[in-house]
Write the structure tokens for this entry.
Amino acid sequence: MAETLLFNALRAAIDEEMARDPSVFVLGEDVGHYGGSYKVTRELYKKYGDLRVLDTPIAENSFTGMAVGAAMTGLRPIIEGMNMGFLLLAFNQIANNAGMLRYTSGGNYKIPMVIRGPGGVGRQLGAEHSQRLEAYFQGVPGLKLVACSTPYNAKGLLKSAIRDDNPVLFFEHVLLYNLKEDLPEEEYLLPLDKAELVRKGGDVTILTYSRMRHHCITAVKTLVQQGYDPEVIDLISLKPLDFETIGESIRKTHRVIVVEECMKSGGIGAELTASINDRLFDELDAPVLRLASQDIPTPYNGTLENLTIVQPQQIVEAVQKMISLGV
Amino acid sequence: MIQERTIPTLPSVNSITRDEGLLLYEDMVLGRTFEDKCAEMYYRGKMFGFVHLYNGQEAVSTGVIGAMRPGNDYVCSTYRDHVHALSVGVPAREVMAELFGKATGCSKGRGGSMHLFSAKHHLLGGYAFIGEGIPVALGAAFQSKYRREVMGDETANQVTAAFFGDGTTNNGQFFECLNMAALWKLPIIFVVENNKWAIGMAHERATSQPEIFKKASVFDMPGVEVDGMDVLAVRTVAQAAIARARAGEGPTLIECLTYRFRGHSLADPDELRSKAEKEAWLARDPVKKLATYLLDKQLVEAGELKAIDRRIQEVVDDAIKFAQESPEPDPSELYRFVFAEDE
């Protein structure tokens, strides 16, 4: 595949997996004839039919539960959350049934399903359409949480998520669908539980995911010109966290900055920081620094919205401060 | 006590053979005896957690599940799931062991009373929150249609039965799933066990239209009311609904008018239901009703029924012994089954 947009990379992943395995099907709001709110499933219904690309009524909790039942009985559903925020309405089915049922059933049932869709803060979409559900769901046992960030990893990760026998929440970002990248012609899969080393460096570890990866890259360009040498790791797997990769980096740099779009309270960064303190405290030369969104509903106003989420300049300043303090 | 609804009577019930009658009786007695033993164990401090017993409603489980194909059709239950599990064929030993939290339980001691599962018996589970099992049942029904139409599996004509109570019919998942089931003509039957009370909330105080079967009509779906204390009536209605579903003609809503002879759970002081109401329903005991029918029709002799009673008592006593003697789950396996890789 030549230069591919991220939403088309996701589409290709779904298409390839549906062609490979007839038990894979897509369901959700406007996934069929409309092609999905971000066109990830565009025209797939023409190839696979209405039952395999199932347009559902607007009934999030029920169609999510339906997918759980289908998964328990041997199908491999992919739910599209038209906007991931809507899946708050399906919280019960995702938490109680998708997440916990394998355990409470004592291993009677597997729930191989993917719940994917756009999340994160877009451009002035208002509070309800600007959510980071990964924070809410990270406490649910049995769920895997994965966040893609480039066309390349979006495709390889989604294919693996579809083949995984566990429920996987797969986070895309509203502002990343039009990223472009050359993709390999041949098939590839990426592991769901491995973080991605984005930039090798030596003096500070920046842990990030989803769209904030790109803010970090922007900041790093400035920082490198100033003589800094940060290491950037895209977590990819938000649960479980890849402490092999994280640990290796921290044992080298001894300094950590977390950059995330979650709200600071109870976010992925909160868990990450606590886990770093639990496991790697002796390696740290400075307290873990968290850059996160403000603890407010995302405001509509563009200026206020920008103040709510982390900006590249804040990352630059955080690195400068941490290193210049010589800690 | 609110004016009771007129108990519906069918023009005729499907006849049963002697063997069928004995099977129905045995299943109902198993349900009753098992639950009575649970109450005893709970009050003696041998069993813990929330325990919701099914006494009084046996005609529904036996009538519906007895009309299904064991181990092939799917059944989805609620927190009041012991007897549904027994009716689908989960051994009493495994159900009782689960209630004791043992490693030999059908959910390996991880589930408990409200979370009984058996993939082998196509028991989709006991679901503890109101309404949440209905979408899961819908998914199993969708799966049957999908296998047949997409994957070309001609044998995939299983029917799924979703059981739930009157309280659930005021919940969105009920309406959402009725809509989707009718829209896609899914092979599912919705079985409402209307026992008149959602814990302490009288049905009439919770719903604008107490006649639940009528709610099917807005989805262009057949809705039937049936005497839920009469196993032959339930069975007759279920057989028609199952045949419709299996033929691809879509879902049916069955409202069974029934009553629970005990409180909501064994922790419920049961102070709101009147003595008169309880007595009126106790007089319609479904187990006795079937026994009387079988004897009146001279299908069986009293001694045969007594022999079943004795044998079932032995089955339940054996289940208790098995549960008590079974090992606790291995503490080193605390995390086992969180993920699919744990077999």
